[in-house]
Amino acid sequence: MKIIEIIREAVAEFALGKEFAVEHPAEEKMGDFSTNVAMVLAKELGRNPRELAVDLVGKLEGNKKLRKLVSKIEPAGPGFINFWIKDEVLIKKMDEALGMKEKLGDSDFMKGKKVLVEYSSPNIAKRFSVGHLRSTIIGQAIFNLYKHSGAEVTNDNHLGDWGTQFGMIIAAIEENEKFDWNSVDINKLEEIYVDFNKRMEENPELRDRAKEAFLRLEKGDESARNIWQKSVEISMKEFDEIYKKLGVIFDHVLGESEYEKLMPEIIEEAKTKKIASVGEEGALIVEFLDERGKEQMPPAMLVKSDGSTTYFTRDLATIKRRLSDPALKSEVFVYEVGGEQRLHLKQVFVAAVKLWPEETKSVQFVHVAHGLLSLPEGKMSTRKGNTIKLEDLLERAEEKAVGGEVISLGAVKYNELKRSPGMDYIFKWDEALSMEGNSAPYLQYVYVRTRGVLNKSGESLEKVLKDNKEFTNEDERSLARWLLLRFAEGEVVESAAKNFAPQQLCAYLFETAQKFNGFYERNKVIGVENQSLRLALTLLAGEVIKKGLEIIGVETVEKM
Ligand code: ARG
């Protein structure tokens, strides 16, 4: 059992069913854990919190399980109760942690639960944008965090492979009877689309042609279907290369086209359940009103006045399938999608609950929104502002980083994950590749340093574990509690997963590296009496950094 759980259990005995917190005090001299239970209860019982804390300390001291674990329990401040963990308990935990290997830092708070993370979701015939890069990196980190929290996780790449824009591509390509597919790549496809779009502004007749082409696609017309299929293949080839580079594998790639067949069903259901109504010009809309009939959000369109379905309809169909298909069915559905789709997804989630109240009862829909990323000017081939050829970014990273792809890729990923996903930011090479600041190369370097210490000592892990007995100074204990009580016990991973916040893990890792460096500067490790314990701490700091980076998809190297 985890230390925090034993404390919680002991405290709960006296909590009269009330909610209380067990946390790490901000200041180390205040102990390893602290609870506010006395303050919570004092209000309830009309007692002085400080006095109640003193009483409760007496009672808690009588708890046998707790006594094995803690060396001291004390009331503090206005009514906190602080706990100090015995040194020998920490040292035993340290040995355990070093033996955990790939399980180190994992939580099990999601055991028995299923989670689906949808991310990346680029659009066919358009280049993979920086927004899709953000979605892919953040989505993968969230996927990993849940995997390391005991959940059964699956992922889905919700490709944008349907919609009226394909009418334009089809119409444009059909203009040229001898269209040569040979040299066509995704850039060319995007050009064709952009060009047709431009011409359409001046020539309304082209608009009708695109509409007609899309209608044919929906009906399964061979020529339209072929062009669509080719566009999908060409685009996927490009996307798959990016996924390979980033180490991303999808269980499901269910694009919007997948849900086309479900459209009539959804529309019927919305009508019979009286969730949709006929709006202006014959469109079918879903309104979002509160009990008093006041509009909470603007209405969403289910069917356009020209009879075609929308992105919104396809998202509802997607949910319908995700609620019933055993391979997709989950308790938590995470959507890693740009912040500009906030309203859209809110409308989708609310409409889904209206449509399927039973099926969505114990289901959580979460939109993890990412902000805008601007790229540095110059060599980067930016076209239309925010689209880049991703290869350029990654190639540039490789040119700039010392140490090849592991370092450059890690730098790009970490630079993304260290901040809250919703933030806008400007990509800066110096920041991403810095060897001193909060960056992947810095953490990778500190890991290499910890390995170097062990190698230099000539000791084996087994020997290190056997010989370490006690702390000889505060520095050692402080680093031990930081590594053990936060990471090894699963706290960091659990919190980052619960909050859909990989940046929490990054912040922890950066602080770990800083703490280790401080420790290493102040304490000789090799050739001192306490060598074993210090080596064990060094080793564990390295393992924690390695494992933490692995969870966010960043590899480590043994030499740098
Ligand atoms: N393809 C969309 C885009 O690039 C993102 C899809 C987001 N997911 C969803 N279920 N709507 O903007």
From TrEMBL:
Signal peptide (UniProt feature, chain positions): none
Reaction catalyzed: tRNA(Arg) + L-arginine + ATP = L-arginyl-tRNA(Arg) + AMP + diphosphate
The gene coding this protein: argS
Protein's name according to its UniProt entry: Arginine--tRNA ligase
Organism listed in the record: Candidatus Collierbacteria bacterium GW2011_GWA2_42_17
Domain DALR anticodon binding: from-to ranges: 443-560
GO molecular function: arginine-tRNA ligase activity; ATP binding
Motif ('HIGH' region): 122-132
Keywords from the named record: Aminoacyl-tRNA synthetase, ATP-binding, Cytoplasm, Ligase, Nucleotide-binding, Protein biosynthesis
Localization, UniProt: Cytoplasm
